[in-house]
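User: I'm preparing a small set of examples for a lab meeting where we compare how different chains pack in three dimensions. I only have the primary sequence for this one, and I'd like the structure in token form so I can line it up with the others. Please keep the answer compact; I'll paste it straight into my notes.
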Amino acid sequence: MTPDDSSTTELSGWGRTTHKHTRVRRPDADGGVVDAVLAEPEVTIRGAGKSYGDAALPGHGVVLDMTARDRIISFDQGNGVIVAEAGVLLKEIAEQALPLGWLLPVMPGTEWITVGGAIASDVHGKNHPGAGSFGRHVRWLALLRSDGVPTQLSPGQDADAFWSTIGGMGLTGVILQAAIQLHRVETGWAVRERHRTRSLPETLSLLRTLATHQESDPNHHVIAWLDAHSTGPSLGRALIDEFHPATTRDLPTAVPPFPERRGHAARPRTAPASSGRRRVRSLPGPGLVSRATIFAAAAARWHLSRAGRQLVPLHSALCPLDRTESWPAAFGRGGLIQYQFAVPPDEADVVGEVLRFLATHRMAPALATLKNLGRGSGGLLSFPIPGWTLAVDLPARWLHDPEALRPIDKLVAAAGGRVYLAKDALSDPHLIPVMYPRLPAWQRTQARLDPERRWTSALAERLGLLR
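Assistant: Understood. Below is the structure token output for the 467-residue chain.
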């Protein structure tokens, strides 16, 4: 089978809650992409498949897998601009650029996502108050419309289309390639400072203080790992990690400036569709994640972790999810749901209300992280807004009732917040226009870029994103 052929396979999101048997086309050149688009009445665009929910799963029609378009076209080492096809993994950019002193300015929790996926989701990192989200660093992108016409977009060239594509969840067209501005670094190490807090007010207070430093430093990363199993006065206690890329002055004499990366071979050109890396089978039944194991892991993490400074490899600090590729498999056949929301700065009480709601309903998450967010990008459907973002990982088997988290949806919407579409699996569709007030403007531009009405996804159909 050549990459341009179509085949039928089973796909799921990274959380493994929804599975679809669908036809997949995987072209490896622009001509093949155009042919695939014009041959199909409905198309869902997919990268590495690391969205937790159904953002890259089809409602109807065929899936256009972009992972065969994985060439780095050019890299200007003088100014740090890299031009890459949409299927290139962030990992591959990091491996090529970091030894030359350049770093992607925004890294989410994993390197195993594509350039196209990072743009379509407008991903953010732990340095958002200073660096913003991924789209802020895209200088231009090439987009294929649904009528087969390619166009180049930038903040100064059809800005409406550009900012509708940034965070547009793959519903404005096929991103073919993009130019990304990297940041200069001296080493491949990070200096990490770990803090311990004893309550949610203390956690929020320290994060507020650190956010003021982050706003002036795009390389200042901060994340709070909440002990979500604690209740009462200790509710919201946390381990807070702040780190920045190390300079040569930070390194002991015997430490090389750029550590050797081990454990992952380069991806072959003939990799199977949406593979990225070897898929780990889900454990049978409920897996390893239960209320008892969550409690034990939370207690161990809290009591065994120590505050202080440490030198760590930069990719490990930026992408902690990559330490355990089998994380979704541990949740068993039902998979996991990550619920992530953002609320404005003066709505921090919502964080405590959500943690208490989950505790009251015996849904203490297996993982809970809290971060600062800064000014959002121009993306009409981009997730980040100034304030707070809480993400919680829950076994999907706890949420057989799709209404289970609707009270949280209402809390978030009433506070002027929103859920993260790239991770969503079960939000109330009626609240999406409230959470995303620029949705009508996005829909107008989306309709202009999709005159053939080809683009779709299970997420778009479930939430009614398309007009």
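A couple of notes for your slides: DSSP finds 13 helices and 19 strands in the chain. The first helix runs from residue 30 to 39.

User: Perfect, thanks.
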